Every structure is written in structure tokens, then in C-alpha cells.
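Hi team, as promised in this morning's meeting, here are the two structures we talked about. I've kept the exact order from the run log so nobody has to guess. The first one is mostly here for context; it's the second one we should focus on when we meet again. Sequence first, then the predicted C-alpha cells.
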Amino acid sequence: MNGILVVDKPGGMTSHDVVDACRRRLGVRRIGHAGTLDPAATGVLVLGIGRGARLLRFLEARDKEYRAEVAFGATTTTEDAEGAIVDERDAGGLTSERVAAALGSFTGDLDQIPPMLSAIKVGGERLYKKARRGEVVERAPRRVRIESLALEGFRPGRRAVATVLVRCSKGTYIRSLARDLGESLGVGGHLASLRRLAVGGLGVGDAVPLESVGPAAVRPMEDAVRGYPRREVGEEEAVALSRGRALPAAGIEGPYAVLGPKGLVAMAEDREGSARSLCVVGE
């Protein structure tokens, strides 16, 4: 079984829990996922089945879309609703206009300090392991890109809540965005809830509930690389590329999908005047 699976992850499960459940349901051992979601978060989690797992890095490189609820007036130890409150301020003076105006300063390229509860390694150890021991260490800022931020809803009050639609690059931490947005408005804030709406070209409309996962839910591997340029080749060229031989350059910038008569053959890239495979998934 080779392909991809788009699951609407429920809250309360880790991404690895979802992978394990799908292994049992499909009877397949080789399954990976593209882009971890925190246990409390819901939404699009893309899994690679069999050879489809080789394509996950191309999905992870694509933009992601989220719907986030930001609660103002309280900062927490984890920068989300799971942590203990460490500071409280009155957010009653906030208006939707002020929040919408503040969002403008968080679009484009920016340096973001990752949260302590993240998988980034500092000193050879992942930050979340340090955080579980109560340690807080200095983290280097990471350059991310936020393509768009839109205010979808606003509920005023001492603990005002904004619903924000986010489109962002790989590596963006939405809980850090919530933290920084609250600080910019002078009242503090944390991530109250998060739902991932899309990874690359795959959205919630493509997703199935975990309880509906079965062989019929597995999608073709080419769905994993939606949005990438495509190149079609004949049987002879498909076999050659799958066996590590180069093809004539396609004149396409960046990675592209190569499709043969039997479907997706590989992801390839033009280098030094020829096309060479980056990852082979078929013949």
C-alpha cells in the first residue's frame, strides 16, 4: 500500500498517536506524518503510507493555514491554554480595530523566538525535555514568513478573544505568534485553540475522521505534491529516472513532479543541464 492519507486529527491525541492508530487500521507499518500538531490542536495531518512517506518532506516545505483563537489578558507557562497563568492584565480596552491593526506588523518575514515546548534542540537536547524539568533557556530567533493574517472574529472583555486566520511558512509557531501579538497590544496573550486548515494543496475538505480511516481513504501519491510543477514522461524515461539515470533538463525552476504512464515516478530537479531525481516513488 503506497499513497497518502489526510486525517482530521482530533484533539487530545499526539500526532504519533494518530500514526499508531492508522498503522493498526491499515495493517501497514511504514507510515510517517508531515508536520506535528500539538495534542490539543485539531485539523489536517497528512500521513505518508509506504513509498508515500518519501514525499512528506516536500509537503512539509509548503505553506500551512490555521484558524487560531488568541486569548488576551493572560500569559501562560506554555504560551497556550494548557499552561499555568503567570501574568494577568485587563484586556477590556481592546477593540477589533486595534487587533486588526496590530496584525499588520506580523506579516512578511520576521524573526520569531520559538517556545520552550518545541522539538528544537539546544545543547543537544530538545527544548520540550528541558521545559518538562522546569528549565527556561535562551533560544535563538528563527526567520519565518507569515504570508497573511486576517481577523475573522473578536469577542471583547477582560479576557478578550480574537479568531485569526493564518497562512505561514514551515517552522512558524502559532503559539509564539499569539504570545507576541498579546505583548504588542500591551495586555499579554496565549493560544486558546488551534485548527490546521491546510498543508500545501491539501485541506480539511480532503481529510477524513480518524474513525473512518481504511484502505479506501488512501489517496494517490501525486496528491502529496499538488501545486508543484509537473513534467510528463514516457515509459522509457520513467524507468531510467527511477533507476537513478538523468534525463534532459526540463527548464523548470525548483523541484517538480515527474509523472509516467503509471503515475508519479519521482520528484526531480534540474542540475547542471540535466534532470536528476530527488526522491523516487515508482517506475
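And here is the second protein, the one for discussion:
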Amino acid sequence: MRRGSDKFGGIALDSLIIAAGRALAGGDPLGALKRVALRDDPDALALRGVAMAQLGDFTRARALLRRAARAFGPRQPRSRARCVLAEAEVALAARELLWPARALAAARQTLAAHGDPANVAHAWQLTARRLLLVGRLAEAERILARLDRRALPPALQAVQELLTAGIAMRRLRTREAQRALELAATAARRAGIAALQAEIQAAARALHSAAARRIGPAGARPLHLAEVEALLASPAVIVDACRRAVRHGQRRVPLARRPVLFVLVRTLAEAWPQDVSRELLVARAFRGHHADESYRSRLRVEMGRLRAALATLAAVEATRDGYRLLPGQAREIVVLAPPVDGPHADLLALLADGESWSTSALALALGVSQRGVQRALEALAQAGRVQCFGRARARRWTAAPLPGITTTLLLPAALSSG
């Protein structure tokens, strides 16, 4: 069979390489592997690595991409930088958030020096995606603002709008998110990449899925993001269990670092307009079995602290049997709770995105210690709620997604940043 050739990055490429590259661009990894599976030249190794990544074998993909980068060597810096870029994307897909950012920055500079603006933009988008995962929204937003959407190819335009929608959803700007998802869907159709279209459809479903629960006198009911946005803009006093804070309009009292006070105010808010007995408050806040005099004294101290903390938002009133929360100038008190409550709910929310996470990535995304994450995962594994695969540093954790729930949008780490 006669093989034609073409030029790509200054390198002569035969027709099989070109066809494999087109297959990958169209989201057909098996078609690409059929053409280059038995070849070990640098271009074929790189394409095989990308194909394996699209098939979900991240370990094999990284090994192939590293072999390709070594084979290209210093004489082909542009091709080598593209391999580094692909490896960074694989690391992001595998939730290895500690992958060295310097290597990606160096690759981006090399690509810029060799006139590859599309891959330079792709490198910036990878950086923004990592920042989005760890909740650094303002930094991700600044990176996206420097990219000209009109100059990007359709696939990168779709990714750009998807990232914009992700930031808007985490900031609870639902109209902005909806508009960005519509633009992303249009760009993805032009690109013709089925996997990208599916990702955008999943994000659109998340926008209209249950993101939290409203707990009030009428009971609990699920809320999607637009309803959460409307509730936070309402005149009610809101005890926000997603971010462990109490808010009323623009005023906000954070209690994330005062867990006892938050347990007390949430317990009082869930019972509003009724009071709560001292026995129940002691059991919830101190895990005491009986409200003896020592617990009652401690409860009085903590209630005094809570009264001082909420002075501008609500009042705490002592009653004959316990305490009651009063809304002050507001009409009502509402609890905004996560869609899934209980121990380690934020950890389960991250794992429920269906991706495999390392403990270091989970710790970074949640802003907690890695050892604390390991202990929580061990407890969840014993309860059968999470599962792991791999050993030592290659171990990854995952959980089955909860149907109909927007799992990662109201995480404290994401919403407290940016």
C-alpha cells in the first residue's frame, strides 16, 4: 500500500498517522488504534497514548505519552510539548491534582514560541479546569478572560463555555450558566465530538437537578440551583448547612470553624418557630446522654456565644424547657442543607461525580488533611459506600453517582473560594 505524507509541526507524517489523528479528533479511539496499534515511532506512541486515555486506561496512556516525549527528544520541542500537554490532561482526568504545574507552563511557553495558538489555549484551559476542581474560582475566571473565544476552534470553544458554566454554577449564577451551556452545545455540535456533547448534556442535567434541600416548618423539599439562588436572595434568615454559615441578605456570619455553634443554630432553625429542649441540644452539640448541671452550664456559655455571633441577624431566647431562635426583622428562618446529609457528606459528594480520585486530590479539593480523608474513606468503605482499586500511590477511590443529584456544586471548598 502506497503511503502518502503530510507535514504536521514540521514532521513528515504518513497517511496512517493522519487518519489516526482525525479519528481521535472525532472521538473514535478504536479507529485510531486500528491504524497505529503495532507501531512504535514517536507519533504513533503519542496517538496511542491519547487513544488509551479516551478509553479510560490512564496508566497506560501516561506511559505511552512519556515514551513518545522521550522519543521526540530536544530536536522536536513542539511535538514533545504536545505530549506533556496530553499527559497533563490525562492527569486531570485521573484526578491527580498535584501533577506539576511547572511542566504544563513550560510546555505552554514552548508551544507559544513555535506558533501553536490552539494548544496554548488548550493548556490555559487545563490550568483553569484544575483551579475549578480545587475551588479557586477567581483564578480560573481570570485565565478564561484572557482567551479570545472567537479565535478558538469549535472544540475549544465548547470547553471554554463549559468551564464558564461550571464557574457560574458554583457561584449560583444560573442564567449565566444556562447561556454558557447553550453556547457550549452549539460549539460541540460544530466540532462533532460525541463525548464532548455528552459532557455538556450532563452539565445541563446537573443545572436542573436537586442541588440542596430546604428545611422549614412545612418540612424538607429538594431545590435545584435556580431555587437555591432565589432562596439566598430572599429576605429570610438562612442557616446554610452547605457552607456552615448564617446569612440574611448581604450579611453573613461564618461558623465553619465553630462547629458547636453551628450545630446549635441548625438545631434551633430546624425546629423554628418552636423551641428546642436542653436535652436535645446537649445531645446534638455535646453528644451527652443527660443534661446534667455541668452540661447545662456549658450550654449556657455556648448559647451566649451564639447570641453574640448572631446579634445582627437573629436572636436566641431562653424558654422554660430550652431555647428558641427568633428571626429578628426577617419573616422566617430556613435551613439550606446538602442534598445528602450525614457524616462525610462533602466527601461522598465529590466521589459521586463518577470519577476516580486519589486521597491527595480529595484532600486538596476539600481543604482538609490527607490523613483525615484516608480515615473517612476507610470508614465509608467499611459501610460499603465507596470502593477503591489499585495499590499504594496508585490507589483510587470512587462511588456510584446518586441519580438526579447535583453532587459537587455546593461543596464548602468550592463556594468559599473565589
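Starting points for discussion:
The longest helix spans residues 174-191.
Residues 1-12, 400-418 have pLDDT under 50 and may be disordered.
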